[in-house]
Every structure is written in structure tokens, then in C-alpha cells.
Backbone:
């Protein structure tokens, strides 16, 4: 178990801070105010794109349904504005619902093609 307080470990990889310990001073090469770019989103976009490519309309349907359920629950909890380009949660729900319906139809057509 590491006893680091957030220092840089081997190969310059930051180590996890210990709960209750103060964080070390920011190094001189870090971006001020913690605004450094995290490329995790790019990895997520790549993974979603890969799943969409491999699974076709089934992946789009799954992600649309997941988004629809998530936004529906958030809307029921009082969310009215979102960071999504459409901004209004009702528009996002409409968009996701239309995408889910279209991809459900595409999935049925694809499955029909397997049996003909």
C-alpha cells in the first residue's frame, strides 16, 4: 500500500492521495485552476463509435434507450436545462425517442434480413 500524499511516482505518474492528507502544491508545469485537458472523453467517443460500428443499429438503440431513461429520470427530478446542444431536456427526450424508434425499426429490418 502506498503512503503517498499525491506525489509523482515512477515514470511521472501521479499517485493517489491518502484520504485526510493535504494535497501537495501544484507543480510548475500544471495548468492553473485544474483546467487541464482530460482525453478520457476521446477514449469514450472511440469506444462508442467502435460499438456502433460492430453492433450497428442495436448499439444505437441501446445508447438511445439508456440516454432516454437517464434524461427521463433527470427530468422527473427537476432538470430543465442540459449541457447537450439542444439545451432543453424535452427536446433531448424527443430526439432520443425518435432515434430509439428509428433504430428499433432498423433492428427489426436487420433481424428480418437474417431469416430471409
Residues:
Amino acid at each position: 500500500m502506498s503512503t503517498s500524499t499525491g506525489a509523482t511516482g515512477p515514470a511521472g505518474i501521479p499517485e493517489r492521495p491518502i484520504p485526510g492528507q493535504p494535497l501537495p502544491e501544484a507543480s510548475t508545469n500544471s495548468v492553473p485552476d485544474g483546467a487541464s485537458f482530460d482525453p478520457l472523453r476521446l477514449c469514450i467517443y472511440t469506444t462508442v463509435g467502435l460499438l456502433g460500428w460492430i453492433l450497428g443499429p442495436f448499439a444505437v438503440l441501446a445508447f438511445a434507450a439508456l440516454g432516454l431513461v437517464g434524461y427521463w429520470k433527470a427530468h422527473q427530478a427537476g432538470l430543465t436545462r442540459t449541457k447537450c446542444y439542444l439545451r432543453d431536456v424535452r427536446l433531448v427526450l424527443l430526439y432520443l425517442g425518435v432515434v430509439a424508434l428509428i433504430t428499433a425499426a432498423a433492428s427489426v429490418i436487420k433481424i428480418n434480413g437474417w431469416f430471409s
User: Anything to note?
Assistant: The radius of gyration is 22 Å.
